[in-house]
Write a structure and sequence with these properties.
The structure is a single chain. With 160 residues, the chain is mainly alpha-helical. The chain has 7 helices and 3 strands. The chain has helices at residues 6-29, 36-47, 53-60, 64-76, 98-106, 108-118, 124-159, and strands spanning 51-52, 80-84, 92-96. β2 (80-84) and β3 (92-96) form a beta hairpin. The chain is flat, with a radius of gyration of 19 Å. The model has no long low-confidence stretch (mean pLDDT 92).
Length: 160
């Protein structure tokens, strides 16, 4: 009988839980007329207003073209506005509008309620430890992906 690798099981559980949590968030955001991507984008801008679209795409880990579509949707709804960068006219900076801030404020119960529900029965110290562990895992995966992308580029250069 083979021994179950707890790292493998933990990775699978993270993937499964992430999928479930995404579904729950999408379901809970529906009454607000907002997608998870829109909500996350607004939340990031609320904390870091004036990000360049490409910076925000990197933070959200989406392709630049997806960020353009997302910014278009949010701008059409008056939740964000694009402003040309003063130093680089090729760049647009995204700024959350008063309407965007009001939309997030209207979701305060959603944000706090979901957190309480999801972490029901889990001690604050365990949540803090979990966050630290997840941040470490996140950085590990980003490093692995960056290393693999660099390796792929080197192989392509060597083949040319």
């Amino acid at each position: 009988m083979s021994k179950i690798d707890p790292r493998r099981e933990a990775a699978l559980r993270i993937v499964e839980t992430s999928r479930l949590l995404r579904s729950l968030v999408e379901q809970r955001l529906r009454p607000f007329g907002m997608s998870r991507a829109q909500f996350v984008c607004l939340s990031k801008l609320e904390r870091n207003d004036g990000l360049v679209q490409t910076e925000l795409a990197d933070i959200l880990e989406v392709q630049p073209i997806a960020m353009v579509r997302l910014a278009d949707q949010l701008a059409a709804e008056g939740l964000v506005e694009r402003r040309q960068d003063a130093q680089d006219r090729r760049c647009n900076r995204l700024h959350i509008t008063d309407k965007g801030r009001a939309a997030l404020a209207a979701m305060e119960d959603f944000k706090s309620g979901l957190g309480h529900e999801v972490f029901e029965g889990i001690a604050s110290s365990d949540v803090e430890r979990l966050l630290s562990t997840l941040n470490h895992l996140h950085n590990n995966v980003k490093t692995i992906l960056a290393d693999e992308a660099a390796s792929t580029r080197l192989k392509k250069v060597a083949q040319s």
